[in-house]
3-beta hydroxysteroid dehydrogenase/isomerase domain-containing protein (Macrostomum lignano), 384 residues
Amino acid sequence: MISASSSNRRSAVQPRATVLVTGGSGFLGKKLIKQLASCSEVAVIIALDIRPLPAGFCLDGTDGSTALRFVSADVTDKAQLVPAFRNVDCVIHTAALIELGLYPDVVRMNDVNILGTQNVIDACRECRVPNLIFTSTSELGRCYKPVEGFTEADIDATEGSGKGEVDLLNGYATSKRLAERSVLDANCSSIGGDNNNSRPLCTLIIRPVGIYGEGDLKFIPTFIRAGKRFFGLMPHLGSPDAQIQRVYVGNVAWAHVCAMRCLLDPSMRQQISGQAYLVTDDTPLNSNFQFVRPFLRAHGVRLLGVSVPLVLVFVFWWLLELLAMAISPIVRVPLAFTKNELYLACTTCYYDAGKIRSRLKYAPVYSPEDSFARSLAYYSAMEI
């Protein structure tokens, strides 16, 4: 599926790179590592995570010329990062913590997402790593209004405008925005060098929309669990006409590969760095409930034909949250969603990601049909 032929000319004249992936054992990280192994530019992949790679994980489908190393380290401790960052050509920082639900650990989330990102930047500088790719989120621009065709500039315009100051994801979007500032501030900062060989640290940001596919433990599984709790029945919440954009994990990984290739190209790196890039693919727009219908069906959950108006959903869940919080000193009620998460899940949201296609030469490598087939096989086999 992934071809490295477009990079053969470069690899013939440039040394093959060592690439480090933080969060290498995670949802996106595992997919990214396998795609990097198919790139002729890459000689060594370092997977860094606090969790080990899954048993039996291997770089299948490659010619065996790419080495894979695993490093156990926590991004919140810079001292653990520095030894792994030495002699690395590009760091792809995917490690993150998303705390959803009624009882989020916001302190831990900020430690990982904000402090952890600053530690990655500092380790890059200390170890003279010239390239850094940061995985962020499209959710930075979300508020209570629909998002229709937003570009990167539209998302950035919400900062400080009052339009996006209500973080509907328990502070997750705020933590990513603050981390983005640090990454952009670090762009073109000096990392030293020998004599005339000094070069800057070039950074860029990847902002995927909501991701689905193999390795997902939050998005689709949450819908399935909710349906099972309601006796295998799930009403359609909000308007069935809502248009919501999702992206397959394999295409998000490929977007990172495209970004890496551009940063490794001396003629391009400073032209494309210091910027954020949205990532979408050709997955059809649909309401979240219509999108998850086949995955629900695979677990015996039926999506009902009735649609509950969003305002009723929001008010009902708000009252449910008040009750849950009132009794939380005695018992914690594990709500599947918060009212804000439900609101986002039911509200139109799609983006214009033309910038990454034109600037980083990204194009989806997995079709909607292939993405769906792979995802259905994965979700159907999950034990929930």
Q: What stands out?
A: DSSP finds 14 helices and 14 strands in the chain. The longest strand covers residues 200-208.
